[in-house]
């Protein structure tokens, strides 16, 4: 009998694919270069690859869930061409200010709430304490930490140093391939890259791996 599985939880926009204002068509999702080999290495080591993404554009009426499914089919196919298979995609369609009445509400799945991660833990038999979350905003980090994961923030120069412990990432990376290499290094799968990278102005205490509380 095998034990609980490990997972890499991945934000979508700004982490797997280039940021765009409310992408609504498959061709709007463009993978960042260099992530294929890094994801393949982690998948080969037994990590489940799980996307967890806020998609308030559905609640706002910018696109439909059917549109989103087509985009995610395109995303999965793009990764498959790189030899990477996604194990699951979870999305939150809600927003308190949404234009679609049944979706205009607070929920437990929209990050920074950890609901999507907990669903994956239940559905896939994942151990969050052995898992990681990679995202480009501190709401991602908070969701990961609330679920009990280690976290890596991808620096897109949009986030100020966190002021609360639960929003402190364990590591900050220059880009997503760097984030995935950090995970591989910590897990003993690859040589260590630069592990103490910080955005300009971020003190050491802004990283939980450098003295912050877990």
List keywords for this structure.
disordered C terminus; 214 residues; Rossmann fold; globular; alpha/beta; six-stranded parallel sheet; 6 strands; 5 helices; 14% strand; single chain
Compact overview of the structure:
Its main location: cytoplasm. The chain is of the alpha/beta class and 214 residues long.
Describe the protein's architecture and organization.
With 214 residues, this protein is of the alpha/beta class. The protein has one domain: HAD superfamily/HAD-like (Rossmann fold). The chain has five helices and six strands, in the order βαβαβαβαββα. A six-stranded parallel sheet has the order 3-2-1-4-5-6, sandwiched between helices. The radius of gyration is 16 Å and the shape is globular. The C terminus is likely disordered.
Strand content: 5-15%
Q: How do the helices and strands follow one another from N- to C-terminus?
A: EHEHEHEHEEH
Straight-line distance between termini: 30 Å
Structural class call reads alpha/beta
Q: What CATH architecture label applies? A: 3-Layer(aba) Sandwich
The CATH topology assignment is Rossmann fold
| Secondary structure: number of strands | 6
| Cα-based radius of gyration, to the nearest Å | 16 Å
CATH class: Alpha Beta
Low-pLDDT segments, ≥5 res: 210-214
List the helices and strands and how they pair.
Elements: E1 6-10, H1 35-44, E2 47-54, H2 65-81, E3 88-92, H3 115-124, E4 132-135, H4 138-147, E5 150-154, E6 171-173, H5 176-186
Parallel strand pairs: 1-2, 1-4, 2-3, 4-5, 5-6
Helix pairs in contact: 1-5
